[in-house]
Every structure is written in structure tokens, then in C-alpha cells.
Amino acid sequence: MNTEAFPRPVALIAGVAGGIGSDVARRLDAAGWCVAGYGRNAEKLAVLQAELPGLHTIIADATRPDEVEAAVQSTLARFGRLDAYVHAVGSILIKPAHLTKIDEWQRVIDLNLNSAFYGVKSAVGPMQAQGNGAIVLISSVAAQAGLPSHDAIAAAKGGVNGLVLAAAASYAGKAIRINAVAPGLVDTPLAAGLLGSEQARQFSEKMHPLGKIGRPANIGSLIAWLVSPDADWVTGQIWSVDGGMAHVRPRPKV
After folding, report:
1. Lateral strand order in the sheet of 84-87
2. What is the per-residue pLDDT across 197-228, written as a single tens digit (0 to 9) for each?
3. How many independent structural domains does the chain possess?
4. Is residue 124, in this structure, part of any structural domain at all?
5. Range of the domain at 80
6. Where are the beta strands (DSSP E) in the chain?
7. Which distant-in-sequence residues (6+ apart) come within 8 Å of 247 by Cβ?
8. Is residue 203 included in any domain, yes or no?
């Protein structure tokens, strides 16, 4: 593959119009990357493209492997290379197992685990041809801490964690780095249903030891670093960015 036509690095972002995906797109665009992104909502993609005129947008469904592969091929056709793939696709379902309908379970697995696998599968092809690359997936604090009523999402994101570890080992010899970021609750449109009232927001804030909800910038800044040359010795890691929720137990207030 000829990577000389576009000397600038190229990133493809799944879910580019979402809260985290758009933050990453802005950061990489400002850093001089060529940025492509895909999603299902043409209107949201158009709004982001108006903000970032150099953005190459693709309408594709992350749960359809043929469309994911087409998005990768469209990026290659436009820029001639693929240096980074960021999978900012997922969902939130707050239900215990016995109240989770089978179609809800299947949708959670499809959006969070299957789509991540499709992204890795498609992205590593051109990266192997180049002999380098970086992939970042989105996990969740739910896969690291036992949270009530997170049964389906914890299972799906636990699968993402396993995928990161195995794929990082599979492709390390090709200099392809694969990592994940595991957020707590982040103030994005995806989380709007959980933050719809002041009471709900305060409850969610108290679940995090640092006492606040995350911002897209907290996640996007780490992802931008993980795909950069500064992180070229980092692979197979699950990075907690969750206000301390997964690993910190603060002293109880009296």
C-alpha cells in the first residue's frame, strides 16, 4: 500500500457524530490528521462536517460487517492509508438479567461487542499491509466493577476487554497497538436519559468517588494520545477514566 500520497496520518472513527467520537475528531483534526468517520445519522454527520470541512463522512451501520468494511475501504480510497481506528459506538441498558428481554440482550451485544469485533477485523487488514497502526475501543466501568442492573452491558464490555487483550497479542508483531478506554458515566447525548433531572444527576455524581460526571474531553484526550506516536509503547491496556469508580473506595462520610 502506498502511504506516501497522504503523508499526514489518517484516522477512521466509528460513531464520529457522538459525544466522544466528535471530540476525538476535533482533536485529531486540530493535530493535523486526516479524519474519516462513519455513523447512521446523515444529518448529524452533515452538522459535524460543516464544523470540520476536511472530515470524510460515511453513512454506515456499525452492527453490519459489510458496511464497516465498506467504511474502511472508503477511507482507503480517499486517503490511501489507515493509521488509527477508533470505535466510539455503544449503548447503555440499566436492567438486571431477569428484566432484560432477549431482543434487548441481543441488541446490547450487537452494538457493543459485535460492532467492536467488526471494526477490529476490518481495520487490521490495511494496518498489517502498512506494518503499523493503532486501534482504540470503548469499554466501560461496568466491566470492571460489579454494578447492579448492568448485567447485559457488563457482559458485552467484558467481551470488549477480552478482545483487546487477545487482539493486542495477535497483532503486536505487526506493530499494531490495540487498547481500550473504560469510562464511567459521561455527559453525552447517549447518557441523557440517565441525567434527565437534577436528582438523577446528583445520584450519578455520588456514585463516582471524585463526585462528578465525566466530560467527553476526559475520554477524547486519552484516545487522541493513545493513537499518537507518543503512545507507541502501549498496547493491550484497559484505561479506566471513571472518576475513580472502578478501583477507588473513598472513606465514608460521617
Report:
1. 56-59, 34-39, 10-14, 84-87, 133-138, 176-183, 238-241
2. 677 677 666 777 788 878 999 999 999 999 99
3. 1
4. yes
5. 10-188+215-239
6. 10-14, 34-39, 56-59, 84-87, 133-138, 176-183, 238-241
7. 144, 145, 240
8. no
